[in-house]
Design goal:
By secondary structure, the chain is an alpha+beta fold. 19% of the residues lie in helices and 36% in strands.
Length: 632
């Protein structure tokens, strides 16, 4: 297998971030450029304070200027042919220095490295910043300054798009450092870089979003670091294939990137390894990219130690091929992976202590479980083979699919039961946009679905095929007759559906309500007939406590405890007046005397006439009346 591996630049004097100083660097013709030594802390230049920087920046005393620069220097982690080097030189030569650009002003190496790291993580081709100092540096010392700043760009920060993500994606750089004398023993060092990468700024931003989304899908709610690593590893092994098509195409450098692995689903080993590195770091799990002369893989931390993983060699074209042969292995059980020297040093192994024993991966995890496409058909695999007994929903790449007898059924539309809950499926996929009723398979029951999933807490009305149905705890209740509240209105349901034709009384929670055309009419006060009996309704509710008169269709009737009393003949009190009712009806025609609770009263035109005094003959008997009351 072929790998991007070679280190580049004189600016990359420390090599990765762990390569020791004190090495000679050569240009592409092999000429030695500089030999550096470790930069000790006490050798760092005396820097200016921020206030001094601000003050000096206003001065224009640039009486002295010297520049040190080199030709194009290439990332030794890219195995570049001469043709590729010439192509990178050509790309760099065509990058125009922008007229308006971000320029940082800093006072120490750490700030400079941080700024350059941020710009390179965004794949910016042009970077410039100033370092202010009170120390004079010779040209060779300026080269050392640049090496120190540039090497620190690649330190392992734990941020998924920094560290190895930058190191393995940049390819070459032109740089120069210019010293300006500001006067009073002050100097400004201007650093200028033109950098070429394997991918673009937009590709990098798209990759960040894709990694965030995919790791959230795979790992949200997962607490075990092992399970997070396993899900990420399995995703890459099942989704990425080796890019044999572009293996010998020197112009297709994207094959080395995590972007190619994620979006094109094909890459070489460096693309596999950098994608695994970035996805693990995204979920807070420490990982590194490790290389040999011709291959790349990863180490990843679980617990307090690191394990070897090789997603390139464990990648599979069919679920039956998965066996995790190179997953979470110790060095002793990881054959044919000879690390380059920098990954074998004492300092590296102290920072990344390796396990002495391989991880005990459960047998159930060694084989693929999930959907896989073979010859245009998607099958559900378990234990390395199609499970033809499996019928359920399966999550794949963010979408839930319906599998029936081990095969994804694209023709199925209806309900599917998953972990005790019904989901609405349309053409083989869960339809998250659907809200309404759906029939439970092999049943007369209908289920209420809200945004694709059964809402077991819902009780109320649902509109389906131009009819409103009553649902109780998400299931259509064919037996229900009564009232239900929906959007502030009470509706009358008869045997599961709203009866818009019904007008009359209905019982609900031990109270009787008046319904007009399918809705409770809270404005209604009057009589209504129910099964041959007339009842008195007041503001939409039957009033059992009412006794007295009520008017209905122009006639006054006598109500006794909420019911029209056709048998009653006698007096009743209503609005400051006593009226005479005969057989439940106030006729306005009766004039005579009537007895009420032992007293006889004189009624004229169906009302007691309290003003009348005199005599009245009824049935041959003469009555003496005083102010409406019979006195003799």
């Amino acid at each position: 297998m072929r790998l991007t591996k070679k280190i580049i630049a004189m600016c990359f004097a420390v090599g990765m971030t762990l390569m020791p100083m004190g090495q000679a660097f050569a240009n592409e013709e092999g000429e030695t450029l500089v030999e550096t030594t470790n930069v000790q802390q006490d050798e760092a230049p005396e820097m200016m304070s921020e206030s001094e920087v601000a003050s000096e920046a206003e001065k224009v005393i640039e009486c002295e200027e010297e520049t040190v620069s080199e030709g194009t220097l290439y990332n030794e982690r890219s195995s570049l042919s001469r043709e590729e080097c010439e192509q990178i030189q050509e790309e760099i030569s065509q990058i125009e220095r922008p007229e308006n650009y971000l320029e940082g002003d800093f006072t120490n190496y750490s700030e400079c490295s941080s700024y350059l790291r941020n710009q390179m993580s965004l794949r910016y081709n042009y970077v410039m910043f100033n370092l202010y100092s009170s120390t004079y540096h010779s040209l060779s010392a300026m080269e050392t300054m640049n090496n120190t700043i540039f090497n620190n760009v690649f330190v392992h920060t734990g941020v998924s798009y920094q560290g190895d993500a930058i190191l393995y994606d940049y390819e070459g750089v032109d740089w120069e450092v210019t010293r300006y004398a500001l006067g009073n023993g002050r100097y400004r060092y201007e650093f200028f870089y033109i950098i070429v990468y394997k991918n673009t700024t937009q590709q990098e931003l798209d990759l960040r979003t894709a990694i965030q989304n995919k790791t959230a899908e795979l790992c949200n709610g997962v607490s075990s670091d092992y399970e997070k690593v396993r899900r990420i590893y399995d995703f890459i092994c099942s989704m990425v294939s080796y890019d044999y098509t572009n293996l010998y195409n020197d112009n297709h450098r994207l094959k080395y990137t995590a972007y190619a692995a994620m979006f094109n689903h094909t890459a070489v080993c460096q693309g596999y390894a950098t994608l695994f590195y970035r996805m693990c770091e995204e979920v807070g799990i420490s990982a590194r990219v490790i290389t040999s002369i011709s291959h790349a893989w990863n180490i990843v931390r679980i617990g307090n130690v690191y394990y070897n993983v090789d997603s390139t060699w464990d990648a599979y074209a069919s679920p039956a091929e998965r066996n995790y042969q190179y997953f979470l292995k110790s060095n002793a059980e990881f054959p044919d992976h000879e690390r380059e020297y920098e990954f074998t040093t004492y300092s590296f192994n102290a920072a990344y202590p390796m396990t002495q024993t391989s991880y005990e991966v459960p047998d159930a995890h060694r084989t693929f479980i999930g959907l896989y496409c073979t010859d245009g058909t998607w099958y559900y695999y378990e234990n390395g083979e199609v499970n033809s007994d499996f019928t359920d929903l399966v999550l794949y790449n963010g979408t839930w699919y319906y599998v029936e007898d081990g095969v994804l059924n694209w023709n199925y539309t209806g309900l599917a039961l998953h972990e005790g809950v019904w989901y609405q499926v349309k053409n083989g996929c869960v339809d998250w946009n659907y809200t309404g009723l759906s029939q439970i398979p092999d049943s007369q029951q209908w289920c209420y679905i809200e945004k694709g999933v059964q809402n077991k807490n819902y009780t109320g009305l649902v509109y389906y095929n131009k009819i409103w149905y009553y649902v109780q705890n998400s299931v259509l209740d064919w037996n229900y007759t009564g009232l239900t509240l929906y959007n502030g209105t009470w509706y009358y349901v008869y045997k599961s559906s709203v009866n818009w034709n019904y007008t009359g009384l209905t019982l609900y929670n031990k109270s009787w309500y008046y319904v007009r055309k399918g809705c409770v009419d809270w404005s209604y006060t009057g009589l209504t007939q129910y099964y041959g009996t007339w009842y008195y309704v007041e503001k939409g509710c039957l009033n059992w406590g009412y006794s007295g008169l009520t008017r209905y269709n122009g006639t006054w009737y006598y109500i006794d405890h909420g019911v029209l009393n056709w048998k009653y003949t006698g007096l009743t009190y209503y609005v400051d007046c006593w009226y005479y009712v005969e057989n439940g009806i106030l006729t306005w025609k009766y004039t005579g005397v009537t007895k009420y609770y032992g007293t006889w009263y004189y009624v004229q035109n169906s009302a007691i006439n309290w003003k009348y005094s005199g005599t009245f003959t009824q049935n041959g008997h003469l009555y003496q009346i005083s102010y409406g009351i019979v006195v003799g």
